[in-house]
């Protein structure tokens, strides 16, 4: 079922106290990238996830290479088949506390349900811990370590989860591995991932 909205930024009308980098992109996307927060991955000023930081520039360059972004970098990227969200969208002075992450998880939950993508890309360890806990039964079997599992495919409950190492830590090989994984998924019948049994990919 397609979402009937042309809105790119905050298409579902979320309201986060104090300002936020709201979910952004194609509301009918099959590929959903989950980052950490504006404090870690940028967007406190622009209101757009994965902007204003080196992490954002590196991730956007990959999105451009695989055909998801019209530009290599923009503060208002033109995205297709891709949606960007944060585990904690709210703007804070420093990194959010554990309690603040827990409080704002509901915004991510709502966006995940609304977008209903096929593939979740968990950028950073906190996003991976969330994806493993909420969308697989593997948190007790797989450590939420994106450096160790970068660009692997982990099959979960209704989603395929792809861990993504912190972009600021990428080597050339890390970047190439992520591009290769996305390209392979685009070349496959990735829509069959919905509802698959939980296995380690």
UniProtKB/TrEMBL annotation:
Molecular function as annotated in GO: 4 iron, 4 sulfur cluster binding; deaminated base DNA N-glycosylase activity; metal ion binding
Domain Uracil-DNA glycosylase-like intervals: 22-165
Keyword Hydrolase in record: yes
Pfam families in UniProt: UDG (PF03167)
Keywords: 4Fe-4S, DNA damage, DNA repair, Hydrolase, Iron, Iron-sulfur, Metal-binding
Biological process, per Gene Ontology: DNA repair
Protein name in the entry: Uracil-DNA glycosylase family protein
Lineage: Archaea, Methanobacteriati, Methanobacteriota, Stenosarchaea group, Halobacteria
């Amino acid at each position: 079922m397609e979402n009937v909205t042309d809105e790119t930024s905050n298409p579902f009308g979320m309201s986060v106290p104090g300002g936020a980098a709201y979910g952004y992109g194609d509301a009918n996307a099959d590929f959903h990238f989950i980052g950490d927060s504006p404090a870690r991955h940028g967007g406190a000023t622009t209101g757009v996830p994965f902007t204003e930081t080196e992490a954002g520039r590196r991730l956007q360059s990959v999105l451009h290479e695989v055909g998801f972004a019209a530009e290599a970098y923009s503060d208002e990227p033109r995205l297709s088949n891709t949606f960007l969200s944060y585990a904690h969208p709210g703007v804070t002075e420093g990194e959010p506390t554990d309690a603040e992450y827990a409080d704002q998880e509901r915004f991510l939950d709502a966006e995940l349900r609304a977008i209903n993508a096929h593939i979740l890309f968990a950028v950073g360890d906190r996003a991976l811990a969330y994806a493993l806990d909420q969308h697989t039964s593997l948190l007790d079997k797989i450590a939420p370590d994106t450096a160790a599992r970068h660009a692997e495919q982990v099959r979960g409950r209704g989603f395929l989860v792809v861990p993504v190492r912190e972009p600021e830590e990428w080597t050339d090989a890390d970047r190439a591995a992520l591009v290769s994984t996305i390209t392979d998924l685009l070349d496959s019948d990735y829509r069959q991932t919905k509802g698959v049994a939980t296995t380690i990919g």
